[in-house]
Every structure is written in C-alpha cells, then in structure tokens.
C-alpha cells in the first residue's frame, strides 16, 4: 500500500509513534510518505520506501496567523495525486484530521477517493480539543474520518464522553520494538552518571504542567533521604526552570541532573533503576512503556491510560495524582533491595512485550485493508 502519514515531527509521543509506525510499515513493504512541517526527529534515513514532504507556510504579512491547515491540505492533495496514495493516516485530530478532510473533499471533486484513518493520541482530546473553541471542529473531523483509532481504552472512553461521536473507535495501543532494545543491560556505562551504590531514577517528558514536574522532584527528595540516589531529568519545556529552582531550594543540586532533550533515550534508560511519571493526564504514557522495555519499573499516577501499561504491583506502582508520599513509599519499596528491584525489572520487560511492534502494526494494516475493500 502507499500510505501518507501526517504527524507532529517533534519529541512528543504522537510524533514518535507515527514515525515508528511509518518506518515499520516501510519495512513490511509499504511505501510511506511523511507529510509535515519538519523531518520527524526519529526519522533518520530516507530510502525508496520512506519519503518526506515538507509543508511550507509562506510568510505573508497580511495574515496575523499563517494558515497551516490550508498549506497542509493543499500539500496533501498534491502528494496524494502525484504518488497515487491509497491511505491517508493522520495522527492527532487538530489540525491534521481537519486538514485531511479538506484534502479528501478537494480530491473527491476530481473523482479521487482516499480513505482517512485518524489516530487520537490524547492531548488532542483531553487537553486541547475539548476546549469549546475547538470542540465542534474536532467532533466533525472525527466523524468524517473513515477509521478512527485511539491509543488506549481510556482515551476511547474520554472521546465518547467529551464529544458527540457517531463513529466506531478501534483501540490500537502504542507499541515499541523489543528487538531494538535487546541490548546487554550490564554494559550500560552507568558509572558516568552515578556511584556504584546509588540508584538512578529517571523522568522523561516535555516538562509541561500536565506532567507534574514538581511531584517528580518531591518524590525524589523523599527517596534520597532513605537511600543513595541520583535523579536524571530528560527533556525541555516550560516547567524546567521552576523545577531547577525547587531542586536548589531543597539543597539536592548535586543529586539531580537536567539533561535537556535527548536522542539517546535508550542509553539513559539502560542505566536507570526507576522511572517516574506522576502526570495529571496521560492517554497512554509511551515514556513509561519505553522505560519498561529497558527493564525500568515505573512509579506513576493512575491517570488516563497509564494503568493499561504500568501494572500495579507488577511492573511498578500506581498512585492517585498528587499523592507524593505514596509514590515515594512505593519507589523505596522497589529500590531498597536488589532482589525486589530485579523482580520488578524482569516484570517490566516481560509486560512491555505485549506492546511489541510486531503485534501492533498488523492491527493498523488490517484496518487499512478493511477500509480499502469498503472504499
Ligand atoms: O504527553 C505529551 O505531552 C505529548 C503527547 C502528544 O500529543 O504527542 O502525548 C500523547 O500521545 C502519546 C502517544 O500516543 C501518549 O503516550 C501520551 O500519553 C499522550 N499525552 C497525554 O495524553 C498527556
């Protein structure tokens, strides 16, 4: 099949999933065309089956806001015609499903019918899309999609609760490549980050409010009072400065390292002992899954789809949002002896295997095939 993928090319989970999906589809023989404003961060090499088309928005002074949806839908029309695309797969409802629908309608005028698959990732539904400003456009774009998928059962429930949806929603969970992280966990160069007797605790995110960065710091503060530990903070975002300030106030600057954005997540997770994800909302929690595949147990909130990934008492522990004391206690419970930590590490990788790319990508292929038959 020839598949056009529209996504955000940044470090966010939706862009990562869309990119990894495209790469996996190309390896399975499909021709994949990424259409976005920048080459996706995880898309290293292009080849005869992976193409990248940049959406340019001409900077015209008359426009106060440059019309990205217009540029994207026009670009989609050109790409779909030129490359005879079979399926349009858009990740994130706004504005991608909206622009995709416009492209579909323009093509219909020329007798070209391209089915659109829309994958909902979370923030487009729970945080941004449900705002009254956007709600009608989001409902409309979802209802006009030929196939709608959500990355967790929880997100499906939220979508049906928050919007007026007439479409069936298929749950296709996010995935990871078990083989790609099949490295030797003893050869992780952890001595670069911590002393031998210290546990390494990691948090990775875009440091937005929804991630509750202050909780990460507070949980770590309590843990390091009980056992020797270091905290690695990976990512960039608006909450970073306040977090650094809090670390200073607590007098733990020598134990916390802010590493910024990284393309070497697996290397960092390889020497991590515990992952913290205390988010306010999380449709899936791809970062938790990436930790688990690297044998890192997860201490998280029980928000949204996280319980579908992090299994309480098995791969880590779940607490109510904001319950720092419970999170710290659970973290200490896992970290305080090697045997318990080993059990949680093994469980984390074993449970992550359920989300192996080889199990999940065929689910998308089946949906593509089904919609093409009914075209
Ligand atoms: O979490 C973010 O801030 C990024 C966001 C995105 O839109 O890329 O992530 C969402 O999609 C990911 C991939 O499906 C999910 O793993 C995240 O849980 C989800 N984030 C939220 O729901 C807050």
TrEMBL record:
First and last residue of the signal peptide: none
Glycosyl transferase family domain residues: 194-350
Domain Glycosyltransferase subfamily 4-like N-terminal, residue spans: 11-179
Superkingdom, taxonomy of origin: Bacteria
A Pfam family that the UniProt record links to this protein: Glyco_transf_4
Name of this chain's protein: N-acetyl-alpha-D-glucosaminyl L-malate synthase BshA
Gene3D superfamilies, A to Z: Glycogen Phosphorylase B
InterPro entries: Glyco_trans_1, Glyco_trans_4-like_N, Glycosyltransferase_grp1, Thiol_BshA
